[in-house]
Design brief:
The protein is α+β, with helices and mostly antiparallel strands. 15% of the residues lie in helices and 38% in strands. The longest helix is centred in the C-terminal third of the chain and has 13 residues.
Amino acid sequence: MTAVDITADLNDEDDTGYVWTFLDEARDPSVVVPGAIVVAGTPGAPAVAEVIDLVTKPTGTVVHLRILPGSVSDYAAAVLRATASA
């Protein structure tokens, strides 16, 4: 299982075309800022995503996410390669 930064239904897009969730679904809201790369979804179905924006609404702060291609393990392997040669 993978720990996620923010829980989201990866199939739930709004009229922006981006996946959305609420900021209060974040494990640590301070890391969920526009431009940040986060792990989103659920522990059983995670994905790497870019935080597009935060929109304050009466019901809470909405986070828009752009799901990036590939799996979490693909990104982890790339980071390991990059840090091993540094």
